[in-house]
Amino acid sequence: MFRSPKGGLMLGVGLIFASVIIAVAPAAVAGTNQVGRYGLGRIATPEEIAGWNIDARGDDGEGLPPGKGTVQKGADVFADQCAACHGTFGEGEGRYPKLAGGQGTLKADRPEPTVGSYWPFAPTLWDYINRAMPFPAPHALPADDVYALTAYILNLNDIVPSDFVADRNSLPKVKMPNHDNFIWIDPRPDTADKPCMSACATPADVKIGSTAEGKDLTPRTTGPLDTMQPK
Fold first, then answer.
1. CB–CB of 78/152 below 8 Å?
2. How far apart are the C-alpha atoms of 59 and 65, rounded to whole Å?
3. SS3 112
4. Nearest CA-CA partner of 133 in 78, 89, 88, 67
5. Is 23 helix (H, G, I), strand (E, B) or coil?
6. What is the pLDDT of residues 159-181, one digit of tens each?
7. What is the number of other CB atoms lying within 10 angstroms of the CB of residue 149?
8. What is the mean pLDDT of the chain?
9. What percent of the chain has pLDDT over 70?
10. Among 28, 122, 187, 214, which has the highest number of CB atoms less than 10 A from its own CB?
11. Are the beta carbons of 76 and 156 closer than 8 angstroms?
């Protein structure tokens, strides 16, 4: 599911197999029992659509809901909901990912892609926490708690001050440290070869000249880079 350029909701085709099949039509009328195009289901109500329309856009925060949260409140929520997996200060526990630190490591042998070292947009941090966290019960936190967690994690990475208040207006204004290192338009062509329009090769004459077999190109499965290091 994603938001269209004009802000409309786009539902994945897999939803047709849900236990209650809902057909979304452009001319939907709230409260109607009109049968869908294929004679299945009914028109989705605005409330049902709103239940799926929970994404937040990164560059401008479109989709962020009302609410707010402070760094201090986030510290309390983090201790209750997140620290067991991500550590008290975002350092990570076991194989759960780190949330803080890692600045300057992305080109190193052991890069640490954390919120502070890698993440491009503050609003999408809110979006991810809202949809996928906490791990045992995703999408269970109220918006204010998600805002507070976002503020706390940004503060752990020294991106915002301790008095920062996260809301739908402040988060889009936060400049993430690695934002400018992302490539927003892929410069690579779809193919390196031009299509053959005349005097093309006969398929039977095309031969495989080389393969990766026997050239030791398979990544190593043992070695220092694959060993968990103590924190």
1. yes
2. 15
3. coil
4. 78
5. strand
6. 999 999 999 999 999 999 999 99
7. 29
8. 83
9. 77
10. 122
11. no
- pTM for the model stands at 0.66
Token readout for 171 is: 């988060």
Kindly report, residue by residue over 92-141, the tens digit of the pLDDT. 999 999 999 999 999 999 999 999 999 999 999 999 999 999 999 999 99
Q: Give me Rg for the CA atoms of the chain.
A: 24
Q: Is 70 exceeded by the pLDDT of residue 214?
A: yes
d(CA 119, CA 76): 23
Sheet strands (E) in 4-49? 9-10, 22-23, 42-43
With CA atoms as reference, report the closest residue to 118 among 98, 103, 133, 108. Answer: 103
Q: Which of 86, 59, 87 is nearest to 182 (CA)?
A: 59
* Structure token pair of residue 64: 């962020």
- Cα(53)–Cα(68) distance, rounded to whole angstroms? 20
Per-residue pLDDT tens over the stretch 5-26: 444 444 443 333 343 334 444 4
